[in-house]
Amino acid sequence: MSQQKIALVTGANKGIGYEIAAGLGALGWNVGIGARDDQRRETAVEKLRAAGVEAFGVPLDVTDDASVTAAAHLIDQHAGGLDVLVNNAGITGGVPQEPTRVDPATIRRVVETNVIGVIRVTNAMLPMLRRSASPRIVNMSSSVGSLTRQSTPGAETGPISAAYAPSKSFLNAVTIQYVKELAGTGILINAGCPGFTATDLNGFRGVRTPQQGAAIAITLATLPDDGPTGGFFEDDGEVPW
Ligand SMILES: NC(=O)c1ccc[n+]([C@@H]2O[C@H](COP(=O)([O-])OP(=O)(O)OC[C@H]3O[C@@H](n4cnc5c(N)ncnc54)[C@H](OP(=O)(O)O)[C@@H]3O)[C@@H](O)[C@H]2O)c1
Asked: Which of 31, 45, 193, 225 has a CA between 20 and 30 Å from the CA of residue 88?
């Protein structure tokens, strides 16, 4: 594998994912732009290239087995491997999400993308990550998935939700299981929270810019070999599970 780092960012056509790709690209990395919509993906790739980033499009729907398998094949063929996977793609599932009113189909859809999608993509990319000298996996979680904060009176944890927030708790739990299984492989695996960021996800009500939201993922993607693994981080430090 060449010295240049190769990354895949899922859901990189807009929002925080786009800025993670831009940030890694600015470091000279070759960045795969994982996105499910052809037009949105190509527009993002062109914009990144115009900004000097070495970006390549990766057709990717994280809920679709065949799409994910094809994405891994494309990356291996195009780039020859993968050093860093940023599992960023995510959905909220919309409203209502109060546990007494939520449609079970909403929960299934959110878990399929936010949790099973991460497992599907991670497992497809693992053979390439195992070949990397400094592999990293970053799972974009959310502090709303922190059970500690959810159960702390007065903590800011967003609206009551039976789908989105629990999907991030689930993702955190799965992240820890990967850490345990892959201990000793050299793969550093961490969860990150971008903070409340102005994107489509929340109707642009967030207070942070997408660039600010991308910062923690870029930090976790570029950890040194003796960096942490099995943690949950935001810009201010560790988030309690
Ligand atoms: N914004 C916040 O305040 C905030 C806070 C905490 C955590 N997060 C997390 O940060 C991550 C990025 O969120 P964001 O705010 O940047 O949201 P966003 O602007 O809505 O972007 C979400 C991205 O995920 C993609 N995506 C959704 N479903 C997908 C699928 N099945 N396959 C492939 N891509 C899919 C979207 O693609 P399309 O354009 O095709 O829909 C889009 O590129 C998410 O995991 C989110 O939960 C965000």
From this structure: 225
Which residues does the annotation mark as catalytic? Answer: 164
**In CATH, what number does 6-238 get?**
3.40.50.720
For the stretch 33-60, pLDDT in tens is 999 999 999 999 999 999 999 999 999 9
d(CA 3, CA 185): 20
User: In the chain, where are the structural domains located?
Assistant: 6-238
Ligand 1 probe mutation, 197, 209, 220, most atoms within 8 A of CB: 197
Note the pLDDT tens digit of each residue in 126-143. 999 999 999 999 999 999
Q: Ligand 1 centroid vs 34 CA: distance in angstroms?
A: 11
Q: How far apart are CA 59 and CA 74, in angstroms?
A: 9
* Ligand 1 atom 23: residue of nearest CA: 11
- Taking alpha carbons only, the member of 140, 137, 134, 132 closest to residue 226 is 134
**pTM, entire model:** 0.98
Q: Phi first, then psi: give them for residue 184, nearest 5 degrees.
A: 90, -5
